[in-house]
# Entry
Amino acid sequence: MKKLPIPVVVVKENVNKKSVFTASTPLFDIASQGKTVESAVKNLKEAVELFLEEPGIPIPTSVKMEVFTSTEMVNVPAKQKDSVS
# Structure
């Protein structure tokens, strides 16, 4: 069995006052969640492996994708209401 490196992005979110981690890969546009970073990444790997088992899915021979992330501040119009997070 061959191995394929995939780029992974993990985001921490607060849902109902609990932290949830969402791991995603832009390579296949797949995401999964977990209570920890490790469990979110593990769940993502399982989801990608299941996805790749489907017949006809094109599997890249190599990945030359780099992922850069940042948190940026954007202006929100005053008329928008704050949501609870």
Remarks:
- Residues 12-52 form one domain.
- The mean pLDDT is 87.
- The radius of gyration is 16 Å.
